[in-house]
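step 3/5: co-fold with manganese (II) ion
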Amino acid sequence: MQNNTLKEIGEQLLSANRILLFPHMQIDGDAYGSAVALCYALRNLGKDAYVLLEDKVPAFLSFLTQDFCLEGEPPFESADISIAIDCSDVERFEKRKDCFFRGKTSVCLDHHMTTKVFADYNYIDAKAAATGEIIYDLLKVIDCEFSPLISDALYAAITTDTGNFRYSNTTKRTHMIVADLYDKGLNHAKVCVEIYENVRKERIALSANVLKDLHIFCEGKAGLVSVTQKMLRDNHASLEETEGIIDTLKSIEGIEIAVLLKEKEDDLIKVSLRAKSYGNVAEIAKSFHGGGHIKAAGCTIHSPLADAKKMIIQAVEKELAKGSSL
Ligand code: 5GP
Ligand code: MN
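step 4/5: write tokens
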């Protein structure tokens, strides 16, 4: 796929007035931080821009919410430009796709390797640690002034998608961008407290409950845990509050692949997969019609939890049987 340049995309934005931004569903820090930063910048340029959402923003990101973040219908029938943010395919904004394609021109800004082309203009950089890095570059290209709020939002995007600068997607460039954000008014301590140190105690209890039933397999190289609907009820916690559990699992000595199964409904299991150094979890996710990055991917399995568990264990065993080339 041939990318457009950020200059070409920037020119489209500058010549538009009504602009809608579409971060992916099950919104995360990168999708939301990137969308809020870009929307804020477009508004500073006098554009009629909104972020359109299809689900509730998780509590740890609510500090970023602005009046221009809308759930439901947009304030106009069709946009001059619709921009998909951090979305590797149309299914990532399924409920809003009609509205997206009503836009006169469409743009996709993303960093997922498995991206399927669906927009008129595309800038997809799988080397970017976060879509937030791409938004930073775009704002530079359109000569936009960075405010403290834009800096905080981009930092939120980058810190969350890099596991707070721990994952191997983190590069020198990631740090250079963040260094520049400090000059633009970033308050990193405030953002970190909002994101990492504002956890409900019920969520910690859920995490303890889930990790207690840890299943280690493949001679200690793989670990799997499940969150059932009952666990959520018992701990008065929500599915979104399972975020982070997989990182604890992956941090265990010797674990190469970590799996978290989330029972959304009886026969609807959302799977999160992470690899530490040499495993390729994007391959595993793809075999279940999902996707993502080599070291962080996901999919949905339409089976009871016990069956999904068996299928995933088999797929992980197959992947780990390939061994390490490191
Ligand atoms: P998470 O485990 O945090 O939900 O997702 C990890 C990564 O995999 C994210 O980059 C996300 O975009 C991708 N991902 C998760 N679930 C799916 C899915 O069902 N389909 C696709 N294409 N990507 C997914
Ligand atoms: Mn991302």
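step 5/5: annotate
The CA atoms of residues 251 and 276 lie 8 Å apart.
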